[in-house]
Write a structure and sequence with these properties.
8 helices, binds ligand 2P0, Ribosomal Protein S5, domain 2, single chain, four-stranded antiparallel β-sheet, alpha+beta, eight-stranded mixed β-sheet
Length: 327
């Protein structure tokens, strides 16, 4: 094992789950209660460079050209501790991260962030991990990062242990012309972190056991729909699965929600457009922004309709993206 003398840079793209992950069976290892399935996006990614240096007395973390305070850097330092332990090293690192996500897009930056950090830091410290091992390592940073190792449609197999919980590509080179249109309705920081929200839902939602059962069914069905290029079935399953996830927030004690008034406005618009013959389906994560699945042939039409109610700079059209790479 040789520690790299030059910085190692990795690029990871973010992903949006069509079958959501919402709850952990093991907090420390970030083992999920259910398997999930996502689409990696081309347009939102993170570049992270890492160099381990003998002369450093602590980790130095820079994020979008700003040196992070110890409090803000805590989660990253904790992750680097894990990498050091794996490599049996006590060297500190310089970490330089740039997030290429439209300002406050509210799209999962921890997914691309921890996937890029896993790839760059493990290689920089001399570990030679394959993609399965990288996926497991990224999981320790953030659950959704598990899936950002691969491009296209990706399945995170929940497993039952550190070794058995990782992502596998479901369809990596996507030949299906589909888009994900993100509508950025709100820039403010989310009130309830995903980690905390999940814990409350697992512990208190009376619907949690139903969620686990339904996810298993939804996952099976969506895989068939994707294979069959059945856009409507895929979209319908994804939309319902997202709403079922959000019902775990509304039914928790204390209750919480990621919806705001504009999120509901977008959802209603999607329903109306669909009724009028435009095939589009929404999904939503741990924030108020809404993402809409649409076939490429209908994307312009959808954007035109959205522009009637939302400013153009709030609407971003994304497509399927690649897996992790070293730059
Ligand atoms: C997902 N989300 O499957 C789900 C759907 C948001 C809604 O994974 O605690 O940042 O770091 O594992 O991965 C966001 O939560 O949470 C997330 P941790 P993470 O994409």
């Amino acid at each position: 094992m040789t520690i790299s003398k030059t910085k190692i840079t990795a690029r990871a793209h973010t992903n949006i789950a069509l079958i959501k992950y919402w709850g952990k069976a093991n907090q420390k290892l970030k083992l999920p209660t259910t398997s999930s399935l996502s689409l990696t996006l081309n347009d939102f990614y993170t570049d992270t460079s890492v160099l381990f240096k003998p002369e450093l007395t602590e980790d130095k973390i820079s994020f979008n050209n700003e040196i992070l305070s110890p409090i803000k850097a805590k989660r990253i330092v904790h992750f680097l501790d894990l990498v050091r332990k794996m490599a049996n090293s006590n060297l500190y690192a310089e970490v330089y991260t740039i997030n290429h996500v439209p300002t406050s897009a509210g799209l999962a930056s921890s997914a691309s962030g921890f996937a890029a950090l896993a790839a760059a830091s493990s290689k920089a410290i001399g570990l030679d991990l394959n993609k399965k091992e990288l996926s497991r390592l990224a999981r320790r940073g953030s659950g959704s990062a598990t899936r950002s190792i691969y491009g296209g449609f990706v399945e995170w197999k929940k497993g039952f242990s550190d070794k058995s919980s990782y992502a596998v590509p479901f369809e990596e080179q996507l030949t299906w012309p589909i888009n994900m249109v993100a509508v950025m309705v709100n820039k403010s920081e989310k009130q309830m972190s995903s980690s905390k929200g999940m814990q409350i839902s697992v512990a208190t939602s009376p619907y949690y056991s139903a969620w686990k059962k339904l996810c298993k069914k939804d996952l099976k069905k969506i895989k068939v729909a994707i294979k069959n290029r059945d856009f409507d079935t895929m979209g319908q399953i994804a939309e319902e699965n997202a709403m079922r996830m959000h019902s775990l927030t509304l039914s928790a004690s204390p209750d919480y929600s990621y919806f705001d008034a504009d999120s509901l406005k977008v959802m209603n618009l999607v329903h109306t457009l669909r009724k009028n013959g435009l095939a589009c389906y929404f999904t939503m994560d741990a924030g108020p922004n809404v993402k809409i699945l649409v076939e490429q042939k209908n994307t312009d039409k959808l954007v035109t309709e959205l522009q009637k109610q939302f400013a153009s700079d709030k609407i971003v059209v994304a497509s399927s993206g690649p897996g992790i790479k070293y730059l």
